[in-house]
Amino acid sequence: MTDADLALSSAAAAFDARTRELVAELVGVGSDIVARGLALASGGNLSARIDEERFVVTGAGTWLDRLTPEDFAVMTLGGEVLAGAKPSSEWKLHQRSYAVRPDVHAVVHVHPQHAVLLDALGRDIRLITLDHAYYVRSIGRTPFYPNGSDELADSAAEQAREHDCIVMGHHGCSALGDSVAMAFRRALNLEEAATTTYRALLLGDTSTTFPPEDFAALHHA
Fold first, then answer.
1. What fold, for 3-214?
2. Cα-based distances in Å from 200 to 111, 117, 203
3. Hey, where are the domains in the chain?
4. Which of 31, 88, 152, 197 has the fewest beta carbons under 10 Å from its own?
């Protein structure tokens, strides 16, 4: 039996089948996030909604590419820890996004270089390709607030009312979705949009975006 199997077995008593399924999905995404350079070391945190009352979130200080089932906490939307590890200091960021968006079932919070850099420089992240436009749609932002603070969680949740991707000044980004896969896909496309914008700026382009008149008819295979 592998270490991962042993960890999953020890977590089984505290996590129900649905929670274990979501944790396994988040473990896979965490590894991919680090491999793609969207977070370093213990930066970033992940969560998924279990049901109307509960969500699961990565634990404090966990490295996203080293996650095991024991690195997760199950919490209520009221902020009570029901099982598992001590939750990330950013748990409020996830909790309050779920509270204002019943349609959201996963939150991916990462620290992507280009998105944070462009925002810090006062540059808009431009949606240029079909994938950027379709998956990101629009981008909210907040000023810098200390990590784990009520101000950060509340301001991000307010932006989440209208946006699925939020940039937090000098900090990171959150991507929301109806599934873990969709939240991750949005995080990837947000950073790619930022990288593309950065390259366009290097070429002297300051205005190219996806054709505004085509937004209304967007669809994807």
1. L-fuculose-1-phosphate Aldolase (3.40.225)
2. 21, 15, 5
3. 3-214
4. 31
